[in-house]
Design a protein that fits this description.
The chain is mostly helical. It folds into two domains: 74 residues, Protocatechuate 4,5-dioxygenase, Chain A (Orthogonal Bundle), CATH 1.10.700.10; 55 residues, no CATH class. 52% of the residues lie in helices and 0% in strands.
């Protein structure tokens, strides 16, 4: 398996948008086996085998150990960073009985209730969310004037 962790395709302009991971050709190659593993969970017999011994099931796929660990820990953002596509990952979190809302909330550092309320109030405001430099300067994302005062979970 080749080491496809060095970026070859330019992402200038995308790499500074907070909360955005560009799923391009390189990331698709990098996460190919993560995504194929997730697709395998569409079959009931594969879900049962995976749930019986997750590590053993993951050994069937020639992914990196870092990718396996992210899956085992259910580190959703890390899986995306390592080439997982959220629509393929949905097969995994559905296997766990989790929703898109649950996963999105964990990736934002909010509870499900806070995440739902934020989205019902229009989501994050563009103010303080234009670049990672905004977050570095102010300590994190802004959720908008109508959103409740969210803190960490």
């Amino acid at each position: 398996m080749s080491n496809d962790t060095v970026r070859r395709e330019p992402i200038e302009g995308f790499d500074d948008i907070p909360g955005t991971t560009l799923f391009d050709a390189q990331r698709a190659r990098q996460g190919y086996y993560v995504n194929q593993f997730c697709m395998s969970l569409m079959k009931a017999e594969n879900r049962a085998e995976f749930k019986a011994d997750e590590r053993k099931y993951l050994e069937k796929w020639p992914m990196t150990e870092e990718q396996r660990e992210a899956i085992l820990k259910r580190d959703w953002q890390r899986m995306i960073d390592l080439g997982g596509n959220i629509y393929y990952l949905s097969k995994l979190f559905s296997t766990d009985g989790k929703s898109f809302q649950y996963v999105a909330a964990t990736m934002t550092g909010l509870t499900q209730e806070q995440y739902a309320e934020m989205m019902l109030n229009g989501g994050r405001t563009i103010e303080n969310n234009r670049s990672k430099a905004d977050w570095a300067r102010t300590g994190g994302p802004a959720f908008g004037k109508n959103a409740p005062a969210f803190g960490k979970k």
